[in-house]
């Protein structure tokens, strides 16, 4: 209450604010407030945080989809969202080192990051080190 409204909780006990008014203030705390974070409510994140998480999920999925299908492993999990702890606990599994055919696999796990870390990541210049020049098939190859 102090952080958002500038009110000391002691004023409730001193009779400075009626309990129902205090309850109204508590129920209408903005998204991203510490109370919502503590309660693991979907309102624990602001719209900007949800949009950043969606962007990270899409980037992870894009990197996974554009990798070699024989080496890419399982589809990446989305970043955990607030309010989904029960589903998150049920969905946890150990990463596998090899697939059914014995080929090595890797699992891309999401890691949370701050907005500043995300902006530094987006500012990087990426180059494809495995790109090869187009090589046409020799004539008479039958293709």
How would you sum up this structure, described in words?
The mean pLDDT is 79. By secondary structure, this protein is an all-alpha fold. The chain is built from 7 helices and no strands. It has helices spanning 2-5, 10-13, 19-27, 34-38, 47-65, 85-91, 115-123. 40% of the residues lie in helices and 0% in strands. The radius of gyration is 24 Å and the shape is elongated. It has 2 domains: 2-44, no CATH class; 47-123, no CATH class. Residues 66-120 are annotated as: Disordered. Residues 68-78, 86-104 have a biased composition (Basic and acidic residues).
Q: What are the salient characteristics of this protein?
A:
143 residues; mainly alpha
Topology, element by element:
Blueprint lengths: L1 H4 L4 H4 L5 H9 L6 H5 L8 H19 L19 H7 L23 H9 L20
Portion in strands:
under 5%
Principal-axes shape call: elongated
Order of helices and strands: HHHHHHH
Largest sheet: none
* Count of helix runs: 7
Q: Gyration radius, to the nearest Å?
A: 24 Å
Region (Disordered): 66-120
Biased composition (Basic and acidic residues): 68-78, 86-104
What's a quick, concise take on this entry?
The protein is mainly α. It has helices at residues 2-5, 10-13, 19-27, 34-38, 47-65, 85-91, 115-123. Helices cover 40% and strands 0% of the residues.
